[in-house]
UniProtKB/TrEMBL annotation:
Pfam families: NiFe_hyd_SSU_C, Oxidored_q6. Its cofactor is [4Fe-4S] cluster. Heterodimer of a large and a small subunit. The keyword Iron-sulfur applies. This is Hydrogenase expression protein HypE. Residues 21-194 form the NADH:ubiquinone oxidoreductase-like 20kDa subunit domain. Residues 217-294 form the Cytochrome-c3 hydrogenase C-terminal domain. Belongs to the [NiFe]/[NiFeSe] hydrogenase small subunit family. It is found in: Cell envelope. The lineage of its organism: Bacteria, Bacillati, Actinomycetota, Actinomycetes, Micromonosporales. Keywords: 4Fe-4S, Iron, Iron-sulfur, Metal-binding, Oxidoreductase, Signal. InterPro entries: Cytochrome-c3_hydrogenase_C, NADH_UbQ_OxRdtase-like_20kDa, NiFe-Hase_small_C_sf, NiFe_Hase_small_N_sf, NiFe_hydrogenase_ssu.
Length: 321
């Protein structure tokens, strides 16, 4: 019996068949607090044994076993043969009913017909059987890039598809870890917390109104930004390449909830405004349309900066975040 077949194993089914760039899968390879290797190797105390079925490192998806070995875990979950399992969805959910023929996004084939099974159909089949569902990345959480105005796919987030008040069979809400891409350690840490929670080792995590963990998304970028003292002294950059506050070149950090400026990107290093990039609001419902154009901010005088913050607060509320 392989370790993944042991009866007390908690399975994680990672479906990256939605509309995405696989950015969350790439991000997870950079996580260090904890690393995904520590999670699957059982190197953390109290963690239940885990079998991760993830295209990025599942051996069944390699050339020796072919992709059918990987997809069988999804069929087994669909037949009710895997319990418990956590379903992680990467990528937005297209509206497969908005056209006469074809499909927007598939994930494996139906063994009876040889035809693709859509990612949307998998989500509809597996979500009711999952102990918990995670939507990782802003595409899966809120629609993201593919939900921009004019996109023909009708893309939406997992909470749009299942319902924002949806609960798993264990009574758990959808957990969203947005970001474009999501922060590596925010992602790994939330997976870890959910594993502890499902394994009875941790209390239910607190989520905000956009289904984000509050300990990660409870504060604004501005509150953790290295440049905040420049803002306080009304010392604003008018171009890139300086160390002062970027609000006048388009930074949304005052109203965007994200811990990247405080946490850094990898091993505490980086974080958008800390290293010279404006915050474009990628963790927010309504991103990107509600935050565009990215690099045009009103050319305000310092005394009007609080007004800009207030107006951006209105936008934030309209965006629902
Ligand atoms: S760069 Fe952005 S987040 Fe940083 S202090 Fe300025 S407005 Fe705030
Ligand atoms: S600081 Fe802004 S742009 Fe950077 S990851 Fe956070 S929300 Fe996205």
């Amino acid at each position: 019996m392989s370790p993944a077949e042991e009866p007390d194993v908690l399975h994680i089914l990672w479906m990256n068949g939605g509309l995405s760039c696989d950015g969350e899968s790439v991000a997870l390879t950079a996580a260090t607090q904890p690393s995904i290797e520590e999670i699957v190797a059982g190197a953390l105390p109290g963690l239940p044994p885990v079998a991760l079925h993830w295209p990025y490192f599942d051996f069944d998806s390699g050339p020796e076993h072919a992709r059918d070995g990987f997809i069988q875990w999804f069929h087994r979950a669909d037949r009710g043969e895997l319990d418990p399992f956590i379903l992680i969805v990467e990528g937005s959910v297209p509206d497969e009913g908005n056209k006469d023929a074809g499909y927007w996004s598939g994930f494996g084939n139906d063994p009876r017909t040889g035809q693709p099974i859509t990612a949307t159909e998998w989500l509809g089949r597996l979500a009711p059987k999952a102990t918990a569902v995670m939507a990782v990345g802003t595409c899966a959480a809120y629609g993201g890039i593919h939900a921009m105005a004019g996109n023909p796919t009708g893309a939406m987030g997992v909470p749009d598809f299942l319902g924002a008040r949806w609960r798993s069979k264990a009574g758990l809400p959808i957990v969203c870890v947005p970001g474009c891409p999501t922060h590596p350690d925010n992602l790994a840490e939330t997976i870890l917390q959910l594993l502890y929670q499902v394994g009875g080792q941790a209390p239910a995590m607190e989520l905000d109104e956009a289904l984000r963990p509050t300990w990660l998304f409870g504060h604004t970028v501005h509150e953790g930004c290295d440049r905040a003292s420049y803002y306080d002294s009304s010392d604003f950059a008018s171009s890139y390449g300086t160390s002062n506050c970027l609000v006048k070149v388009g930074c949304w950090g005052q109203v965007v909830r994200c811990n990247v400026a405080k946490r850094g990107w990898i091993n505490g290093v980086g974080g958008c405004p800390n290293v010279g990039g404006i915050c474009i609001g990628c963790t927010m419902p309504g991103f990107p349309d509600k935050f565009m154009p990215f690099m045009e901010a009103p050319a305000v005088e310092p005394e009007y900066a609080p007004l800009v913050r207030t107006l951006r607060g209105f936008t934030l509320r309209i965006a629902g975040g």
